[in-house]
Every structure is written in C-alpha cells, then in structure tokens.
Amino acid sequence: MEKHESLSNTDTAWWRMEDPTNLMMVTGVLGFEKPVTRGMLIDVLENRLITFNRFRQKVSDPTPTLKHPVWVDVPELDLDYHLVEETLPGDTGYEAFRQRVSELMSRPLDYERPLWQVHLISNIGTEGNAVVMRTHHCIADGMALIAVMFAMTSETAEASLIHESPEPKRFSSTGNIFSVAGKGIAKIWGTVKSPTKMFDLARLGGASAITTGRLLIKKPDPVTRFKGPLSVTKVPAWSRPVPLEDVKAIKNVFKGTVNDVLLTAMTGGLRRYMVSKGDDVTGLKFRAAVPVNLRPPGQSQDLGNHFGLVFLSLPVGIEDPLERMVTLKRRMDRLKNSPEAIVALGILRAIGMTPIEIQRVVVEIFGAKSTAVMTNVPGPRQPLYLAGQKIDNIMFWVPQSGRVGLGVSIFSYNGQVRLGVATDADLVPDPQNIIEGFYEEMEDLMDLVRQVQE
Hints:
Helix content: 25-40%
Number of strands: 16
Order of helices and strands: EHEHEEHEHEEHHHHEEHHEEHHHEEEEEH
CATH architecture of the largest domain: 2-Layer Sandwich
Distance between the termini: 73 Å
Strand content: 15-25%
Mean pLDDT: 83
CATH superfamily of the largest domain: Nonribosomal peptide synthetase, condensation domain
CATH topology of the largest domain: Chloramphenicol Acetyltransferase
Number of domains: 2
Shape: globular
Low-confidence stretches: 170-211
Largest sheet: 7 strands, mixed
C-alpha cells in the first residue's frame, strides 16, 4: 500500500509555481579534477542520496484546484533514468558544456518519477568530468541541498568511498545573504512558529502588519531589458573562481562585509551590461528578491523549504563603487532587522493553501515587484570528495519564481567564490557579459585597495 504524506504549504507553493517558461528547479554543477566513474556514482546515490526519503518519492497532485498534493513512495527507483551518462561530441570546452547545461536547465523533470536527475558528463574541456544535478525546489531549498551535498561527500577520498552516509555535518550560514535575519526577526519569529495562514500575520504584531501592507503596495519595478515575456530556454553562465582573500581584503579596507563587496560588484556588473547595450541607467534602481534562511538552529539538514524573502533595492544607477557599497550596506542593514522575510514566508505558506488561480495572481504580483532573484549560499571551507574524486569547483542556479527572468547565485567553496547568472534567452542571451562586468568591478575595487595600502 502506498504511503501518502502531504506536502507542506510552502513546498506546495513551489510545486505549483512550475511553468514551462520558468521551471522550479535547482540546477547544480560539480566539476572534478579527475573523472568520476558511473559505478562509483551509483554507489553514492544508492547509499547516501536516497537515504533521504524525498529522493524516493514522487508528487501526486490529481486535482490541484481542490486537493493538497502528497508525497508518494515509488515501488522501485529506476537509476537508469535518474543517472544519465553522456559524452559531449567533438573537440568541446566551456561553451559546449555551458550549452548542455542550458538544455538541461530548460527541460522539465518527469513528474511521474521522483523529482531529481543526475547527468554525468565527460569531454567538457578538462581532464576530469562533471556532475549536473537537477532537483525540484519542492524537495528542498538551497540550504537543505547543501546538507544533501555534505551527506554525499567526505573530506577525504577514502572516506568518500564508504557506503554508509556520514553523520549530518553542521555548517555555519554566518555572513551570507541567505541568512540575514537579525534580532528583530528572531524576536518576532519566536511569537509565531507556524504562520500557515494569512491571519497569522496579524499575530506577528503591528510592525509585521505594516510590513505586509508595504510588501503588497510596493510599486512595480521599472521595465528594463531584464523584464518581459519569458521563453522556455534559459542561459547559464558562471565565473572563474575569485579568491575569498581578495573579497575580504576589500571588505576590511572599506569596513563592509563579504556580502557588501559581492553585491556591489554584482550590481556594478549589471550596470556595465546595460550601459554596453546603450541603456539609460541614470538614477535606476530595481529589486532583487533575496532568500533568507529561517531554519531554527540545528535543523539545517532537514529537507523542505524554510525561507522567506526580502526585497533589496539595487542601486544600478550609482557608478562609483564605494558610494554603491555604502548604499547597499545601509539597505541591507535595514532589512536585517525587518520582519519582511517572515511576512513573505507567511504569504508563501498561504499561497500553498489557496486554489491555483489565486496562487497565480499572487505570484504575478510578487514577480512585478522584483527583477531578479539573488542568493548567496555558503559552501564548505575545505575541499570535498565524491565517489573517490576531489571536487574542483561547485556552482548552482536557483529558479526565478514569479516570472522573473534574471537569477544570480553566489557560492563559496574551499577559499574561493564563484558567481552564477541565469537568464531568459529572449531577454538576455549573453549572460557571460554580465560576468565580465563583475570581473571589472572587482578589479576596480582591488585597485582602490592597493591605492589605500600604498
């Protein structure tokens, strides 16, 4: 007899936000110094990944307008579907591999199966190979998927070949955008542990009621080349590794944080891209929806979605990087003690309870108020090994809910930071140029550091 377990309201919201032009799927890439074999990877999947029950279950949602979707155990997992081995043809490299990642990002998962798939890809222009893993957002958010990655990996090559999954690792989210909750949020969160209905928002107090109103009446973002009707095809780009030491050198000189530096350079990269296209950026600002981790301490390994959103206004119109950093820091500091993230979580949970027609209206409203989704997830500080091989680099891209066409992901790993950008092909077909602008902004900031230190 099949076991049924209802999706949480928040997970239901992400499940029902799926759209052919905006798949609710997290895509991650692990690059290896030397090739991982299919046999060893199967051992990892069987003995470490599918110990998480969500990776053995599918979603059943026969009448989405009336009933709540449920998790259903599958009788037998078809690993020939969930693990696909492929070799890119010809003399390939970065561009060919990036094109393949684009194709995978644009292809929906099979809803009749557990909502994940791994591609083991060779001939990517390096000595090693790569794993591309696609996971539906209703299974887990970014912080939970980091815990899944930890469970699949080890800190030595030998330990990574042991079949038993290691004890869940604890990791800090200190200093990343994904966890900007300050004391104000913590205090309010303690008053309502499960804001599953819109009515619960009132119990959060007057400040949250005001915040709810402000969220709903925010003016739509200005129309730029980043906003418009979406196509099916998504285009990824990712940066070469940026030494975390450089980022820290900048933040130490200018009394900011690592996030302040990365946000400043990223916003500057968007500015440079628009200017290169002849756009007028005078006084321009638009919002990024920034996920905020709301998991209680010690529950980082729990699957599901436990985050809210804050809407950060990006000062794209400011050319001077120091002025831009000061402005961003002031805005981020204000958001850290705002209940906005919890209010947004309450709205997401409410979306999961309402008929799909109402959900679409609310999602469209939220989409109109932001131009990008921007997230920063902290990875491990030490190198990791999977299936006996060292992971050389890690990158991921999150879905852009609410018909948003621009996604920015920042991931730190082993003393390095990588930036990922995902765009809609009809809006921004060349996201690598945004990455190039990011490089130029980082170099300008490093030049300022050198001037100060002389």
